[in-house]
Specification:
about 100 residues, globular, alpha+beta, 3 helices, single chain, transport, about 15% helix, 2Fe-2S_ferredoxin-type, Ubiquitin-like (UB roll)
C-alpha cells in the first residue's frame, strides 16, 4: 500500500498508509490529521488546503479551473498549494509529502 507524509503546522511529520483511490482529505481523516474539509470534498470550499512539497508538485495532475477558483479563497496560499480533496492517491504517488498551512 502506498504511504504519504503529512507535515503538521508545528513541523511534526506523520507517515501514514494511503490507500490508492482515496483523496488526501480522506486519508487525513482516516488518520486523525487536522484537515477540515467542511464541504466533504465537493469542491465548494478551501478548508482542505494543503501545500504539496515542491519535490512532488510536478507529479500531480494540474488543478482544474474550479480548484484554482476555490484556492483563491485559501489563507496562506503558496505556489504548490492544492486542495486535498482533489489529490487522489495512486501507486505513483507513494511517498507524497504535503504540509498543512499555518492557521490564519
Amino acid at each position: 500500500m502506498p504511504r504519504m507524509v503529512f507535515v503538521e503546522r508545528d513541523g511534526s511529520r506523520h507517515e501514514v498508509e494511503a490507500q490508492a483511490g482515496l483523496s488526501v482529505l480522506e486519508i487525513a481523516h482516516e488518520n486523525n490529521i487536522d484537515l477540515e474539509g467542511a464541504c466533504e470534498g465537493s469542491l465548494a470550499c478551501a478548508t482542505c488546503h494543503v501545500i504539496v512539497d515542491p519535490a512532488w508538485a510536478d507529479k500531480l495532475k494540474s488543478p482544474t479551473d474550479d480548484e484554482e477558483d476555490m484556492l483563491d479563497l485559501a489563507f496562506g496560499l503558496e505556489k504548490t498549494s492544492r486542495l486535498g480533496c482533489q489529490i487522489v492517491m495512486t501507486e505513483e504517488l507513494d511517498g507524497l509529502v504535503v504540509h498543512l498551512p499555518k492557521a490564519g
